[in-house]
Amino acid sequence: MLVGNKSDLRHLRAVPTDEARAFAEKNNLSFIETSALDSTNVEEAFKNILTEIYRIVSQKQIADRAAHDESPGNNVVDISVPPTTDGQKPNKLQCCQNL
């Protein structure tokens, strides 16, 4: 992500918006201009970068699972429960009893 900061100071701009946008496109980056002074696009920039991080991490986790064959359907564990003795139910103590 390419962020142009201080967009409120247009008269002091060192890089024209069109040039920054072209650079971002050429380098496969998203582009946004922000201004902390008037709160323009600041929250949007953070949301965009967090969304992109989440997307990348999620894709990596999916790829890692596929590479290690760890899909949820492949994690089967057999569980065996031994029968109670003599087919009788075990003695259960009452929750609140006088001793």
TrEMBL record:
Keywords annotated in UniProt: GTP-binding, Nucleotide-binding
SMART domains: RAB
Domain of life, source organism: Eukaryota
A GO term, aspect molecular function: GTPase activity
Stored PROSITE patterns: RAB, RAS
Transmembrane annotation, as ranges: none
Stretches for region Disordered: 64-99
SUPFAM superfamilies: P-loop containing nucleoside triphosphate hydrolases
Protein name: RAB11B, member RAS oncogene family
Organism: Rousettus aegyptiacus (Egyptian fruit bat)
Source taxonomy: Eukaryota, Metazoa, Chordata, Craniata, Vertebrata
